[in-house]
């Protein structure tokens, strides 16, 4: 009786190229790299079209000056989106805290009391949203939508009209220029950059930051690892609300007044900037520095359209196209990650 032996088939895997290996190891950074490329192309294209009149010290300094409040909002939004959540209330929180601060200052309340009250008001609304999401199992979209209506309603309760701010301590934030040649930086710009720096430190060098990423990656696994999911998720919304209050201060200093209708639609601008910057809407992947790039892309598009004298509707069209592009890129990255598991 003869026996037949079969030789198992040997699977030969194709050696990956250095480029493929790099992309596999740094897949989460691809959207952020793409945002940098788009920013460079926008700047180069505008410079060529306007014949050297776009990339100037004055215009580049104004880019941060005009978008400081949006950058602060985007930082807070990054924390929330990294947990796979969303915060639709930040624009209304910015309006509420701005009009609240203006009303307090006009009423004779010292600036050292009014400013902390603005920040505390934003954080309180963030806390409410976080509690609804975590402890009452309300979807982040619905909970933050409730926060949006609450904050906007409170803004109209404080005042139905604009309130002019004449407090020197607040106006100093916008009117002061720290110059280096033709370049300049305002205190509001410094506050925005410091907010980014603190967020980078917290997200990448602390246990809290690692927990944020773990929750967005897989919340159930984060619980099994013994991480404090509940406290961290609530804290993410508190941070977003606090940033909304800080943005309210920056916008009040920028405009010189508080107005209850400020910030309508700004929450969508912040979300767009974060997504363009490479943070995945599904959570767990993204960088605050990417959100910074996203805000700069957003601000550059707005500046180019203003220079060209085109209709502002093109702003929504271009940003919408970029969002579609980046969402497709994100889906490709997620699909590749799932195939490798």
TrEMBL record:
PANTHER family: ABC TRANSPORTER PERMEASE PROTEIN YPHD-RELATED-RELATED, INNER MEMBRANE ABC TRANSPORTER PERMEASE PROTEIN YJFF
Domain of life: Bacteria
Annotated organism of origin: Actinotalea soli
InterPro entries linked to this entry: ABC_transp_permease
Transmembrane segments annotated in the record for this chain: 28-50, 70-97, 109-133, 140-163, 183-203, 234-257, 263-281, 288-307, 313-334
GO cellular component: plasma membrane
Gene Ontology terms for molecular function: transmembrane transporter activity
Protein name according to UniProt: Sugar ABC transporter permease YjfF
Membrane topology summary: Multi-pass membrane protein
Subcellular location: Cell membrane
Swiss-Prot/TrEMBL keywords: Cell membrane, Membrane, Transmembrane, Transmembrane helix
